[in-house]
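Obj.: predict assembly geometry.
Materials: sequence records (below).
Method: joint structure prediction, all chains together.
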Amino acid sequence: EVQLVESGGGLAQPGGSLRLSCAASGFTFSNNWMLWVRQSPGGGLVCVSRIKGDGSDSGYADSVKGRFTISRDNAKNTLYLQMNSLRDEDTAVYYCVRDSGWSLDYWGQGTPVTVSS
Amino acid sequence: DVVMTQSPLSLPVTLGQPASISCRSSQSLVYSDGNTHLSWFQQRPGQSPRRLIYKVSNRDSGVPDRFSGSGSGTDFTLKVSRVEAEDVGVYYCMQGSHWPYTFGQGTTLEIK
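Observations (raw structure tokens):
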């Protein structure tokens, strides 16, 4: 059974940093692109970042480019998102999601991030 | 970015009646591999999104056959043949043919 379990969310001040983690199990982690998708309090879903199975390629939404860094450790079956220079508008629930090939088939339960002073 | 536009945004439906959600993209979703990467997701209250449909019309395992997807190019539809109480939630379309993948605004299905 595929499982994705996020951790690391919480409260951060504007300009601060957080590191999210996602522990994956139930599939060959290195075979899949993985994404972080966030859902703002208003409900909208946004693909924040993605990374190729071997870590050799990645992409970012314009809104987080230069501030967020996605990475993965295939030996530990873990996906990461380093979030720096946080802004109020980064407040959201962040989901770890598996890419099945131009679609998203498994989602974690989400970890909430609140940016506030 | 590709803009995905859903309608209606709110959909009150009587139990047992059909429901239909439209999704339009700002550019063609036909990918270089010939496939059209349009997916539909359901998000029940308090839960993570769950995929229902991929590549326009392919139902995921465990998804009831009352859910069906259709469309081509830039115009897509999700239909529920007979709405049940467990179908209450928000439905999103998503395109995966262009990075970044983008979602529609969501359609809230409620029981009338």
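Conclusions so far: Residues 37 and 94 of chain B are 8 Å apart (CA to CA).
To do: check interface contacts against the pulldown list.
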